[in-house]
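Researcher: Please translate sequence to structure tokens.
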Amino acid sequence: MALAESLLKTIQPYTMVTQDRLENLALLGKYLNIDQIPGDFVECGTYRGGTAAILSQFLEQSRHLWLYDSFAGMPETTEKDGNAAKQWVGKCVASEQDVREVLRLVGMSPERYTIQPGWFETTFKQKLPQQVALLHCDADWYNSVLLVLETFYPLMPVGGCVILDDFGHWEGCREAFYEFCDRHQERPVLERVGTDQAFWIKGRTHNRVPISALHQHPVLPSGVQAELQASHLQITQLQQQISQIQTEMEAMRSSKFWRLRTQWIRLKQTLAPNRP
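Model: Translation complete:
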């Protein structure tokens, strides 16, 4: 399922997320719209805003986009995050202006999103969305991921979607997921994308019925889908008109008048072959 090349080119400087994971974010946004799962879109760990720009393209009018990031680089780690994580502390620094710029480039109005700068321990104590349909957690470390899940998962309805961007990359992210599930007796059907990303649909207990929109249809924003549907209707109407005209022409050709007209034209061509 390919995202539009122009969209990928626009957001590429604003993200470190691979294309397969970007496409999956889009597919999940589309699924939530098709199944009409209520709630806003939330992203924790926004960096420069590339993934937020993808999510914004599937933001229906009833939804709002909430973006959380320290904008001060990656926080301190714990033992549960592993030794390799330590070298990333303080890195991946971005700015609010980066996020606003990429959202402007993809046509997102500032009224449709809220940026909450600061450490999660502080910003999660401020006003939160009432309901969350999609939670994109790119928070890397054990403490951060666990806090994200504890804060927003209770706000999600059945059918809502959680994406853990670092499940396969950082040990702490994976440990936070397992601990959260143990605490709350959750046993989600976990799906994987590439070597890093994992996601699940809240309340889903099996995959005997495919998730609507996933790996079935091209990924297109809802506005483009509406235009395509309108174009398809116009094409259908034109095809019906052409079919009717063809039927009328066949009827004319079989009529006595048409046969006489055809014979008269042939006679004219025989008597005066060089005249128009």
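Researcher: Any highlights?
Model: Residues 226-271 form one domain.
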